[in-house]
Structures are given as C-alpha cells and as structure tokens.
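Put briefly, the fold is written as integer tokens. The lines below illustrate.
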Amino acid sequence: MLQALAGVARAPFLLLPVTLVAAGAAAAAWEGVFSWERTAVALVGLVAAHAAVNALNEVRDFQTGIDLRTRRTPFSGGSGTLPAGALRPGAALAVAIAAAAVALAAGLWLLWAVGPGLRLGLLGILVVGAVAVLGYTDVLARGYLGELFAGLGLGALPVLGTALVQGARPGPAALAAAVAAFLMTFNLLFLNEFPDQEADREGGRRNLVLLLGRRWAARLYAAFALLVPVSLAVAVGSGALPPPALIGVLPSLLLGPPLRWALTRPEEEVPLPALGANVVWNLATNAFLAVALVLAP
C-alpha cells in the first residue's frame, strides 16, 4: 500500500520542491533574511502541493485512458500504479485531496506569519499555485498552458514565495534563481511530453509538442535549456548573484544528450539518457545555486 501511495504521488519527483525551496531560502539568506521555521513550513506545503497535482494527474490520465496507451519510462508516462490495479482511483483521489489540504494549511499559516506588508504578494503566489494544482490536468494541459504553469507553479513562484516568506520582498538574487527555475521546470515537463505525444493526442491533451510539431518543439526546448546558464552568467555579471553562483552553470554540462537529440534527430524517440539528464540537470542546478548562495560572503 505504501508503495502504491508513493507511486501515485510520484515520490521520486518530490525532490524538485526540495531544491526549489533551498534555492529560494538561500537567495533570501544571502540578501539578509532567513527563518528556519518558515522555510520548513514552505517545504512541507510545496511538497504536498506537488504530490497533490501528481496524484490528480494520475487519476485523470487513468480515467481518460492516457496512461493505458503511453510507453512508460522512468521519467514519463505515469507511474503505472492505477493501470496495474495496485490502487483504486478513489484512493488516489483521496491522496490528492489530503495532500492539497496539507498545502492549504501551510499556505494559510504562512499568510498569517508574514504579516500584512507581504501578505498580498504571497496571496497572489498561492492563488496561482492553487490554479496550477487544481487546473493542470483538466484545463491547463488541455489548453496549451501546461508547460507555462509548470514553470510557474513548480519553478519560479516557489522560489519567489520561499524568499518572500523569510520576511522581505524577493531581491535580485531570488529573481535570478526564479528565472532559471522557470526555464528548467518548463523544460522538465516539456521533454517528458515527447514520448507521450500520441497518447496525449488521443486523450484530449493539447500541449506544445502537439501544437508546434516535434522539430520546432525540440528547438524551443534547446533554446530554453541554453538560456539557463546564460541567465545565471548574466545575473552574476550584473551583480544580482555573487560570483560563486557560477557553479550553477556546471550542471548544464549534462545537457549534451538531450541537446544532441533535440538538434539532430527530434523525430526519433527521446533516448532514456536524455530524459534522465534533463531531470538531474534541473535538480542539480537548483541545488548548486543554493549551496553557492549559502557559502557566498
């Protein structure tokens, strides 16, 4: 049962919110504000929100038949928990509701904790996050908005929100980290959509791979991937990030396999090493940036 519950929550992917909270908190700490208590609550809330959207996605993809048609990989195509009969859809929905309730409780506590001066900004972030969680599968992913809201809801906004709850408006460091996080999470979902192209089409999804076609979609993936190290280098050069933050560029060396595929043979299946490198690049860049900001003078 525990394995099935972890499956619908996509437990291995819940490392992403950990790195996002780390990057946002480290950026705020480098700029002079930090709270262990608020960081911990933000982490619990974001992990719960991510688990909720994952479980909701599993339920709806099973009900629409998408998960019955995908060619499953360790990085795409769903967990396979519901098609295998390891858990009933109702139980998976209960997981989503429970996780969403935890995320809501964390958000309400943070709204109370930050005080009136920052409350409106945090409320805006939480509202967009709620839209991303509750509307992703049935609305956003069916209206060519899934990638955008993934980049916002599990990229830029968590970094900015974590920085904000420390007690001050996000500064240039948090903004720079948020830009990189947006691009990477956008691409994290984007590349994983290529293997599911036909299943998504038949299941009624409308994403950028279907809209642009594989060749142009792959070029957009490559452009966004290359923008990540460029954006970090520009942020360091402008003083928004300290020089040690350049170590955040190093994980982009992992992009060799996905970029080689995107620029030379996008009509072929995405190789598993490319899908894996895409995930590790995302997690490592956020983590390296967080460590650099913690150690920077």
In short: The chain has one domain: 2-295. Residues 36-63 form the longest helix (28 residues). The mean pLDDT is 94.
